[in-house]
Amino acid sequence: MSDRIAAAEAWLCELPVERPRTDAMQSFRAQETVFVELTCESGATGLGYTYTIGTGGPAVLSLLRATVLPAVTGLDATRPEAVWEAMAASTRATMTGAITSLAFAAVDTAVWDADGHRTGRSLWRAAGGAQESVPAYDTEGGWLHLDTEELVDGALAARDAGFAGVKLKVGKPTAVEDAARIGAVRDAVGADFAIMLDANQCFTLGEAVRRADAFAPFGIEWFEEPLPADDPLAHQRLAAATAIPIAVGESLYSLRQFQTYARLGAASILQPDAARVGGVTPWLKVAHLAEAHSLPVAPHFLMELHASLAAAVPNGRYVEHIPQLRAVAADTVRLRDGRLHAPDAPGLGIAWDRDAIAGLRLD
What is the rounded CA–CA span in Å between residue 65 and residue 62? Predict the structure, then answer.
């Protein structure tokens, strides 16, 4: 039975970071969060969202209000593919691009949320229901500005809390500095605890090869975004030069960008971000593309949403723990035995605090 979108509204909030976050390229100043609420003819509603880490939020909001929301109003919300294609048709001149994909994600997640509330099904079941939980690793204790002692303390706290691993930011001025920090963490946590490394695109190819050689003795789970994300050929050369698995995806904005990496063998782990790739609908396509190439997915950020999506697919490998919605939502992500369990509540499964959202609204 069809259920057309009768009304659509978008607005912007700014969420403070819960703690200082720095990497080799930038600091996380604030999370600009753009919400979209859809109301369907049946009365079903869906609340979706997207984000930036401090810039571009007003541009996303403007594109939604001026172009995207008028294009989807009146469409059948039970057909997410048709809604997504209508958004694409309305913005052809600005695809593929970050602002456009981010705008699509706010609508697409709202469509999936409305469907869940209409049917009573949770997102992880509606999207596939492959597994009930996925291993989780912590990033909050691994930021680049932290000293070595703080890194060790954060890693031990994560291990004691039941996480399967930690991510450490790399990109200090010398490989010796990075290696010393990694080695101290490895000595503290032991051999069986996963350590992921994230360079946030800061290295040249030659330096990435050199750093990979320096990092290899520490049993690294993956080396993330070692190079600019729009250079899959350089990643292909790096992947051929090191035994450390290469991970990419948080800075890719379309299915076909992921396809290029998979076909070239330029990455061993794909990390789609549902906001940046355009929502749940394309995220699932990336996950299935990865599965067809025998690759796992370990989505970037957005743990409140990705706990459900990674559980929905058979190749969901990890979920990243970075709490960021606690200012506007109850904590519904459950960590048990090192795994995040997908929420069973209808729709996205995020328990939004409407009063808190209203209090942080900017536009």
Answer: 5
Name the active-site residue from 169, 235, 285, 321. Answer: 169
Q: Which two tokens stand for residue 174?
A: 């010398």
48: amino acid identity, one letter: G
State how far the Cα of 362 lies from the Cα of 10, in Å rounded to an integer: 11
Q: Which tens digit of pLDDT belongs to each residue from 37-91?
A: 999 999 999 999 999 988 899 999 999 999 999 999 999 999 999 999 999 999 9
34, 319, 333, 341 from 303: Cα distances, Å: 17, 6, 8, 11
Choosing from 167, 235, 285, 300, the catalytic residue is 300
DSSP-derived letter for residue 67 is I
Residue 124 near residue 87 (C-beta atoms within 8 A): no
The verdict on pTM exceeding 0.90 is yes
For residue 169, indicate whether it is catalytic. Answer: yes
User: Which stretches does DSSP call E strand in 99-257?
Assistant: 133-138, 165-169, 194-198, 222-224, 246-248
